[in-house]
């Protein structure tokens, strides 16, 4: 884009941003867009997401940037809708309402001919077609790791090599994905569901499949990761995409004010010994089955490990009878915790996590080893990276939490030599990520290229 003249508003760059309004997707996109908006005050950014997600991200406060504004799109939830208890239901309703909901909202805000770039969550591949129709660049953001993006990019190849469905994968779960550059440490079982196993024809799986096919058409693909973490995959995706730009990790860029500590987690941690507390948080949408959370509670109680547990109010009922009373003083259960600050607190010694990408990065940021209990999507790939490649955490045998497995994991990380080694490994990883976002670091340099591509 040429440098534009401020007086000539018709040529002033206007970037529309389309968010996928679930879990940590909109917050990650917002973090990047905020950074871009701060670096390019002459560019207008119009951020489109649902009212619910915009309310959470932008809140009531002024975001302090005149050139970044949020606009609401409809969420597709019919009036009088009765929630079935399936979190996926909201995603499906949203997907049915899309792309029309974005188009209507965009029409009300900016004339099509004034749009100079379309940014979006990578999931929303149709934003790429929209940009092509407008003859402007499409710049999607992948909010997770490079290896999980690579699995989506290579979905057609993976399906050709393995087939789809239970018959195709039975007995082959432990085969390595060594036919994809940089993926030989991952196994078939680590893949996201919907690629070869699980429902490969669901609207969601189809969306991700299309996404993988669309990426080479993007002017640039931004990724919330660091080139040096997966050099082979970086080289490969750089050949496949027009501009493959690792610009993360966002958790290392303190662009946003700290979350308020409404439940007193940090002051409670202040009273605990260094690296002694288990922090438990399985993310905002899905959680392991109740019997596994009971096993976790029993392991914590038996081992006498102090813990901070972020557990939604409606799930508190699954805890064993009398657990809260018996662990009073050494355990704290809250409905929400300021995770970044909690993990950065010196008292936290281990993180029991589903291995969402942001959680993993935040754990590295806080130099806290992990006990991994992947749930879905890219969780298994991330968990494999954590336990087998980076060696900064342990998994649960068979992928499920048992009392014995959890006690073993807690002992190993909190009191054994192996835990010390993991802390050393995580320190090295922390340094690598810190360098990438520092001056002249790879992520900082990629950010400059991204800025130019708008
Ligand atoms: C969008 O939704 C948020 C949260 O409900 C609300 O605060 C805001 O006023 C809405 N914005 C517009 C332009 O309607």
UniProtKB/TrEMBL annotation:
Its EC number is 2.4.1.-. PROSITE patterns: UDPGT (PS00375). GO terms for molecular function: quercetin 3-O-glucosyltransferase activity; quercetin 7-O-glucosyltransferase activity. Keywords: Glycosyltransferase, Transferase. InterPro entries: UDP_glucos_trans, UDP_glycos_trans_CS. SUPFAM superfamilies: UDP-Glycosyltransferase/glycogen phosphorylase (SSF53756). PANTHER family: GLUCOSYL/GLUCURONOSYL TRANSFERASES (PTHR11926), UDP-GLYCOSYLTRANSFERASE 74E1-RELATED (PTHR11926:SF1560). Belongs to the UDP-glycosyltransferase family. This is Glycosyltransferase.
